[in-house]
Amino acid sequence: MLQNTTTLADLSEGVLDAPQDSEINAISAVDLSLWYGDFQALFDVNLNIKKGLITSLIGPSGCGKTTFLRSVNRINERLGYVRIDGSISVLGHDIYGEGVELIQVRKQIGMVFQRPNPLPISIRDNVLFGFNLHGENRKGMSKQDKDDIAEMALRKVLLWDEVKDRLDQKATELSLEEQQKLCIARLIPVKPVVMLMDEPCSALDPKGTEAVEELIWELAGDYTIVIVTHNMAQARRASHECIFMLMGKVIEHEATARLFVTPDKRETADYIEGRYG
Ligand SMILES: Nc1ncnc2c1ncn2[C@@H]1O[C@H](COP(=O)(O)OP(=O)(O)O)[C@@H](O)[C@H]1O
Ligand SMILES: [Mg+2]
Questions:
Q1: Which of 120, 187, 204, 263 is spaced 20 to 30 A from 113 at the CA atom?
Q2: Is the residue at 277 inside a domain?
Q3: How far apart are the C-alpha atoms of 54 and 228, rounded to whole Å?
Q4: In Å, how far are 66, 77, 216 from 209, measured between CA atoms?
Q5: Under 8 Å between Cβ of 22 and 87
Q6: How many domains does the chain have?
């Protein structure tokens, strides 16, 4: 498929137009509006987020970035006063449709939060936690098979060499950078289609930020990643496409290189030049 062989250079030259084919849209939001009580936080959001790419989501504080991500894995609805209109599909399936099981949605859509949130159990048990709940073929699997899965996931996030001799240590004793990598690792055995990351580097120092960004690049192609960031440099370095939001609306969605160099909208230009917070 085209999008898997597209390089950043192709995107920056504008070779790739937004595909209409829903098969290569990992996430499609159609006329999505969301209210917290009387307060409207999202207004008619229409987005097609392409499979296998890293898409960054930027915009000033309070513009609805977290609200959008939380709508994609249906966390918002835990709040009784949230109302949603419109629809979201993941790989063409309406996740708000009748008969859709929340557990299936959560399996397909992994989420990483601002502060790493490992469970206060061992590194090994953290990596296998989601898998033990709803991984494929987990029943009757030997300890060795599960160890292999844990190793594969930890290798994938470039953490194996650092932790292989202390898999029984509590995950909460790891550094923040290691904890965040672990929180990404524990999604992998569940085989999600999409990984949503809400400012995953905001609690990390510059070295940790760089390490986690590198990891996110490694995962591109295998996963569709949507990453919220306040860090313009990170959005520029670490994404293929970029969405700019303002006051609950999508203002612009473009190849990252194009959005930062020749934005179509005045508001986007103002934001990337630092004219609002
Ligand atoms: N649980 C909530 N209850 C009421 N209002 C909320 C809630 N969460 C967010 N909001 C409001 O919705 C708007 C969008 O918030 P949010 O999605 O967190 O923005 P961002 O992640 O872009 O900073 C803000 O005005 C915020 O105050
Ligand atoms: Mg937020």
A1: 263
A2: no
A3: 11
A4: 20, 31, 10
A5: no
A6: 1
Q: Are the beta carbons of 109 and 90 closer than 8 angstroms?
A: yes
Residue 197 lies in a domain: yes
**CATH code at position 198:** 3.40.50.300
**29 within some domain:** yes
Burial of 178 (0-12, 13-18, 19+ CB in 10 A): buried
Which band of pLDDT confidence, cut at 50, 70 and 90, is reported for residue 11? very low
Residue with tokens 């009757």: 140
Read off the pLDDT of residues 171-195 as tens digits, 9 standing for 90 and up. Answer: 999 999 999 999 999 999 999 999 9
87-104: pLDDT as tens digits: 999 988 899 988 888 888
Res 240 pLDDT > 90 = yes
The identity of residue 176, as a single letter, is L
Q: How many Cβ atoms sit within 10 Å of the Cβ of residue 14?
A: 12
Q: Count Cα atoms within 13 angstroms, Cβ side, for 181.
A: 27
Q: Residue 220's pLDDT is what?
A: 84
Q: Find out whether the beta carbon of 61 lies less than 6 Å from any atom of ligand 1.
A: yes
Binding site membership of 79 for ligand 1 (Cβ less than 6 Å): yes
Give the predicted TM-score (pTM) of the model.
0.89
**Closest residue to atom 16 of ligand 1, CA basis:** 64
CA 125 to mean position of chain CA atoms: 23
Q: Are 136 and 164 in contact (CB under 8 A)?
A: no
